[in-house]
Write a structure and sequence with these properties.
binds zinc ion; DNA-(apurinic or apyrimidinic site) endonuclease activity; 10 strands; four-stranded parallel beta sheet; TIM Barrel; 11 helices; 46% helix; alpha/beta
Length: 285
C-alpha cells in the first residue's frame, strides 16, 4: 500500500490535450501514473447521478481514488437561518454525490466566525454540525467520510485544533490537512520535517494512529499576507511550503495518506513531482 497522489479538479494540460469532460479524467490520470482525483463541487453540487456514476466507473477501472470538494458556501458557524439551512443542504448533497460516484470522502471548509468571538463561533459550528451528522446518519449517508479542512485565513474557522474538535464528534469525520493553508495562516511555518511530523503526531494522539497514517492532505505553494492565504501558485514559483520534508516524513513512517495537489493549473504535474519524490524516498529508506 502506497500514498496516493492526484490533482484537485482538472488541470490546464487536460484541456490542452483536447479533453472536456471530467469523466475522462481517471483514464488521463492513470496515463500519468497518478492514483487520486478530487472532484470539485466548489460552486454547488450540480452533477447528475448518471455522470457521477460514470466518473466512478472510470475511476474504479483505472484505480483512481475519488474524493469530492464540497461547495465554498458552507458556513457551520453562521447565525443566519437561511445560510444554516443551505449549509446542511450543501453537505448532504455532497455526501449523496459521493455515494453516486463511489468517492470515499467529502472535504469541506468549516466557515467563518463573522463578528462572533472565535470560541463562540466554534460552539455554533458544532451545534449545526451535530444536526448535519444526525441527518446524514438518518439518510444513510455516513458511509462517506466527512473531512473538515484546515484553513488559510485568520478570519476562517479551521485551525488544526478546531478541525480536530469537529473530528471528535463522530467516527466518520476525519481531518483534511491543507499544509499550504497552514503555512499561510501561521506566517510561514511548516517548512521542516519536525513541523510536519508534529502534525501527524497530534492527529495520532487525538484521533488514533490509523487516521494519522491515512490522512487526507492538500498541498500547494501559497502566497500569503498578514491575513493569511492570498494566492495558490505552482511548483515553479518561489513560495512555500516545500514538499520534500513532508514526503520524507511520510516515507520514513511508511504512512499511506492521500495527497491532493492544488497548484494553479499545474496540479497534476505537481502531484506527479511529489509522487516521484515520495518513491525516491521510499527506495532510499
Ligand atoms: Zn479546500
Amino acid at each position: 500500500m502506497y500514498a496516493q497522489f492526484g490533482p484537485a479538479g482538472n488541470p490546464d494540460a487536460f484541456y490542452q490535450a483536447g479533453y472536456k469532460a471530467s469523466v475522462d479524467m481517471p483514464q488521463w490520470l492513470a496515463g500519468l501514473g497518478l492514483t487520486a482525483y478530487e472532484y470539485q463541487c466548489s460552486r454547488g453540487v450540480t452533477i447528475r447521478p448518471e455522470t457521477a456514476a460514470a466518473i466512478g466507473r472510470q475511476a474504479a477501472e483505472h484505480n483512481i481514488k475519488l474524493s469530492i470538494h464540497a461547495p465554498y458556501y458552507i458556513n457551520l458557524a453562521t447565525e443566519d437561518a437561511k445560510i444554516a439551512a443551505n449549509t446542511k443542504k450543501h453537505l448532504l448533497k455532497s455526501l449523496e454525490a459521493a455515494q453516486w460516484m463511489g468517492a470515499d470522502r467529502v472535504v469541506f471548509h468549516p466557515g467563518g466566525p463573522g463578528r462572533q468571538e472565535r470560541r463562540r463561533a466554534m460552539e455554533q459550528a458544532k451545534r449545526l454540525f451535530a444536526e448535519v451528522l444526525a441527518e446524514a446518519e438518518r439518510q444513510g449517508l455516513n458511509t462517506v467520510l466527512l473531512a473538515p479542512e484546515t484553513m488559510g485565513k485568520q478570519n476562517q474557522l479551521g485551525t488544526l485544533d478546531e478541525v480536530l474538535e469537529l473530528c471528535r464528534m463522530a467516527k466518520w469525520v476525519a481531518p483534511a490537512v491543507d499544509f499550504g493553508h497552514m503555512h499561510a495562516v501561521t506566517g510561514g511555518q511548516y517548512t521542516t520535517r519536525e513541523e510536519f511530523a508534529a502534525v501527524f503526531d497530534k492527529v495520532a494522539t487525538e484521533l488514533g494512529e490509523e487516521v494519522a497514517a491515512n490522512l487526507h492532505i492538500h498541498f500547494s505553494r501559497i502566497e500569503f499576507t498578514k491575513a493569511g492565504e492570498k494566492k495558490h501558485w505552482t511548483f515553479d514559483d518561489p513560495f512555500g511550503p516545500s514538499y520534500e520534508p513532508l514526503l520524507e516524513v511520510i516515507a520514513e513512517r511508511r504512512y499511506t495518506p492521500r495527497l491532493i495537489c492544488e497548484s494553479a493549473g499545474t496540479q497534476a504535474r505537481d502531484a506527479k513531482i511529489m509522487q516521484e519524490f515520495y518513491f525516491r524516498c521510499l527506495n532510499n529508506w
